[in-house]
Write a structure and sequence with these properties.
Layout: E1 3-7, E2 10-12, E3 18-25, E4 33-39, E5 46-51, E6 58-60, E7 68-73, E8 78-83, E9 92-99, H1 104-113, E10 118-119, E11 123-127
Parallel strand pairs: 2-11
Antiparallel strand pairs: 1-3, 3-8, 4-5, 4-9, 5-6, 7-8, 9-10, 9-11
Length: 129
C-alpha cells in the first residue's frame, strides 16, 4: 500500500526554522519525482520544491529560493524540506506528493490537471509572532 506521511510541522516565529519530513511506504522514493506543495487559506495549492528521480536535481519556487532546501534519504525512504528564515506568508498546509514533474511549472500543472499520483495527508505550518 502506497502511503506518504508528513511530520515536523508546527508553529514558529518569523525568522525561525522547521524541518518537514515525508516518509514513504509501499514504494521507493528514488524511483519517483517527489515534491512539496503548500496551500494557504483562500489560495490555490502551489508547488514549493521538487527533486527529480532521474537526476536528483532540485527546484524551488521563487518565493522560497535561498531559504528552503529539499533533500532525500534513499535508505530511510524519506524526503525532507528544511525551511529557514520563515515568514508569515509561508503559513500553509504543506503536502508531499509524487507525480510526473521536474520543475515548479510542471508541479503546478500537475495540480491543475489533477495528475498527482499520491498525496500525503498534509501538515500545518504556522509562522506568527
Amino acid at each position: 500500500q502506497v502511503q506518504l506521511v508528513e511530520s515536523g510541522g508546527g508553529s514558529v516565529q518569523p525568522g525561525g526554522s522547521l524541518r518537514l519530513s515525508c516518509a514513504a511506504s509501499g514504494f521507493s522514493l528514488d524511483k519517483y519525482d517527489i515534491g512539496w506543495f503548500r496551500q494557504a487559506p483562500g489560495k490555490e495549492r502551489e508547488g514549493v520544491s521538487c527533486i527529480s528521480s532521474s537526476t536528483g536535481n532540485t527546484h524551488y519556487a521563487d518565493s522560497v529560493k535561498g531559504r528552503f532546501t529539499i533533500s532525500r534519504d534513499n535508505v530511510k525512504n524519506i524526503v525532507y524540506l528544511q525551511m529557514n528564515s520563515l515568514r508569515p506568508e509561508d503559513t500553509a498546509i504543506y503536502y508531499c506528493a509524487t507525480g510526473n514533474f521536474d520543475n515548479i511549472a510542471t508541479m503546478n500543472l500537475a495540480v491543475t490537471l489533477d495528475t498527482i499520483d499520491y498525496w500525503g495527508q498534509g501538515i500545518q505550518v504556522t509562522v506568527s509572532s
